[in-house]
Amino acid sequence: MSNIVFHFPFGAISKSIKALILISTALLTVSISAAQLLPAPSPLANSSDARFNDVHEDWTSPALADTHLVPIQPLLGLIDDKPRYTVELLQVQWRRGDPIDLYVMKPKGVKKPPVILYLYGYPSTTDIFRNDAYEDLVTKNGFAAVGFVSALTGHRYHDRPLKQWFLSELQESLATSAHDVQMVLNYLASRDDLDMDRIGMFATGSGASIAILTSAVDPRIKVLEALDPWSDWPTWLATSPFVPEDERAQYVTPDFLKRVAPLDPLEWLPKVQAKKFRLDDELYGRDTPNPAKERLRAAVPDGARVVVYNTPNEFKAAFADGKNLEWIQHQLQSRSLPAATTSWVLRYPITASDGRRVENIMQVGLVRDLPKEKDAWREVDKLGLSVRINGDPCFGRIRFSSLAEHYLKADFGADAVRPKSVNTIPIVEHYVRDYLIKRFGENIAEDIKPIEIQKWLKSLNETNGLAWPTIAKIRGLMLRIYKIRLRHEHVAKNPVLHVETRSKSTYRAIIITPAQTLTILKSLVSPLHYTLVLTCAATALRSSETLALRWADVLWSEGKIRVSKRWAKGEDGETKTNAPDGYVPLHPVLAGHLLAWQRQTPHAKATDFMFPSMRAGGRKPLCSSVFVADHLRPAAKKAGVHIEDGPRFGLHNSRHSLSNWLVNMAKVEPKTVQGLLRHSKIQTTLDLHTQEDSDETRAAQGEFLTAVGMNVTVQ
Q: Reading across the β-sheet that carries 583-585, which strands appear in turn?
């Protein structure tokens, strides 16, 4: 067995290890210093250059299958030799009149480093690749970086009339750039000095769109991170503020949309072949309209990660000093790990029985599970080894990050007494890692003062713009983290006990009246959409529970619908509530409409989804967010429901609306409403205590349906 050793000097065991300090530079905006690699001006296209006579390119597909490009010998412009890395400026070319400046940045001392391709969105130029601080950042941790720009961008914009640019020639820009990424990969493979089994790609804006297209047709990109890709061309071209208003009309014509339709990232996203894919979404960004963002998030393949940034401050914190690179680097490292027997060991001095000082060794974990040294140090904290080495208990020696990591592993994971749902897990991890550990991770847990926590929580509202209910959740998590370690006597006090927050939400759900509900239903031409909205409105099921329904869940003879699961993250999961009654009533009026839909749907077997995605052939339910954006929201606005841009609105509003109508208008007993909404606690409904009656809930549902105007049973 081989070991990787790191040492604790005697007398300094509890001291934290000095962190690597990254330069303060954003990956998207950098300034250029003097004496850097400068590309030569691009030559004009030479029609007599016979080398490219056989080139033909298919602009209808990102794939190279029907495209023939002719790569010529790359020209090496300059090699910039830095103390820790080298930068090569090459000129590659495979079509007439379009030489590409390619920057290859390699760390020294790494035989065949993994590679990350960088493609920034239009109108970014190659300036970023000529910045010393940027080059140092992207080659840290033993990674090579390769950068270039997309078609009709920077030095690649030439030999064109001024009226032609990236957007006016969008089909060409997307297709040729996707082909370029694959041709660059072909060139890199020919060098034999890079690890082509570990290729990642980071891209932004239009570059992210191109990256998605490429990854869908080329499996060599193993890890992909896409920041705010442009997509959904009909919506994007019609409403994006990036499009000049005096040109917009020409981009929304049927002919233009037809040409770019085969290159829509929204259609290619589910086909992405990267083993790990992450979509970064700046909700405050305006280049891509919100409806297009929602459809893109809904289309991510199973297993992909979606990271949302609500404010510029959140984004800045996540991307400062290259922090965003940690994810893609970690994913690439995990794809090619050291031998299974290689492990981290901790060496530290102890006093033997005869009084001599001797070295002791303690196993920490396998490199397979802890690929970086910082992961091993985190495991040391997690295991409480510093406490055990210095005597147990030894209060005040554990960093807060150790407490938090222990919580995520022991009290929060799959082995937890109270396991969390698949929807809750990423949210809690986000709060713990991106807020608590980021702020207090390096602090000694017992040195953190209540007033320090109090001021920080207040700043989350005043500076970061977080809502108080969210801040209350973060405080609750911190309280729980300390509580768990108190139980194990690893800390002696819980400073969060003395910290106060506000928990009252300013959120007010948009309420739909029965009359508006009927208007919405009449405007939905699809029987699938009609029945879905009616079912949500009449049963008050959560949208995830409604989408998970199969026909076998409808108990016709018993007059009820079984609710045993919900659809989350592309699969069935446990329902949100712990209430023992897993049923909602089925009034004869609603039953008639469900029967009518069952006769029409091509997916009517007992195991089929009641509300299937026709696009997916019924293999999964329809996408709620896409349905809301394309159909429900417009129908609600048309029905007179006041919905401003931004506020939440969807199928869940039917749940709020039914509860509001039953309590305030129909004067139904609160306990009955609780049973219909399946709240596990009466406080969630009205904080009253009465007995629920199943006949009464069915009658209450019937009152609502009558108010909507559906008092006749469908035969």
A: 554-555, 560-562, 583-585
Determine the Cα–Cα distance for residues 544 and 566; give it in Å rounded to an integer: 5
Could you list the beta-strand ranges (E) of 370-482.
Answer: none
Nearest-angstrom CA–CA distance, 647 and 508: 9
Position 205 scores a pLDDT of: 96
> 665 by DSSP, 3-state: which?
coil
Are residues 566 and 443 part of one domain? no
Q: Which residues of the chain have pLDDT under 50?
A: 1-43, 336-341, 387, 391-396, 579-580, 687-692
Picking from 89, 108, 1, 91, the residue whose alpha carbon sits closest to that of residue 37 is: 89
Q: What is the pLDDT of residue 117?
A: 98
pLDDT, residue 642, reads: 82
State the Cα–Cα distance between residues 150 and 30, nearest whole angstrom. 19
3-state secondary structure 21-52: CCCCCCCCCCCCCCCCCCCCCCCCCCCCCHHH
- 321-347 as b/e: b if 16+ CB within 10 A: bbebbebbbbbbbebeeeeeeebbebe
Whether 10 maps to a domain, the answer reads: no
Residue range 91-101, pLDDT digits in tens:
999 999 999 99
**Structure confidence at residue 478 (pLDDT):** 92
User: Which domain CATH number covers 526?
Assistant: 1.10.443.10
Position 705 scores a pLDDT of 86
Same domain, 541 and 492: no
Give the max Cα distance, the chain.
94
Please tell me the predicted confidence (pLDDT) of residue 230: 97
What are the backbone dihedrals phi and psi of residue 568, each rounded to the nearest 5 degrees, phi first? -145, 135
- How many domains in the chain? 3
Number of neighbouring beta carbons within 10 Å of residue 481: 28
Structure tokens at 631: 């159909």
- Helix orientation angle between 652-664 and 527-539, rounded to the nearest 10 degrees: 40
**What is the Cα–Cα distance from 713 to 591, expressed in whole angstroms?**
8
CA angle 265, 267, 268 (to 5 degrees): 60
Sheet containing 305-309: give its strands across. Answer: 75-81, 85-92, 100-107, 144-147, 114-119, 195-204, 221-227, 276-282, 305-309
Which pTM does this prediction carry?
A: 0.50
How many whole angstroms separate alpha carbon 223 and alpha carbon 213?
14
CATH number at residue 488: 1.10.150.130
Burial class (CB in 10 A: 0-12, 13-18, 19+), 26: middle
pLDDT at 174: 98
Question: Does residue 367 form part of some domain?
Answer: no
**Encoding tokens for residue 234?**
């009909």
Please tell me the predicted confidence (pLDDT) of residue 336.
46
What's the Cα-to-Cα distance from 10 to each of 358, 378, 402, rounded to whole Å?
11, 19, 21
End-to-end CA distance of the chain: 74
What pLDDT is recorded for position 655? 78
| Structural domain for 186, as ranges | 73-322
CA distances from 45 to 49, 150, 159, 243, 579 (A): 8, 18, 7, 29, 71
In angstroms, the CA 519 to CA 632 distance is 11
pLDDT computed for residue 568 by the predictor: 78
Name the amino acid, one letter, at 318.
A
What does the angle CA 320 – CA 326 – CA 328 come to, to the nearest 5 degrees? 120
Locate the DSSP E strands across 312-423. 343-351, 357-366
In this structure, what token pair is assigned to residue 223? 């890890």
Q: How far is CA 321 from the centre of its chain?
A: 20
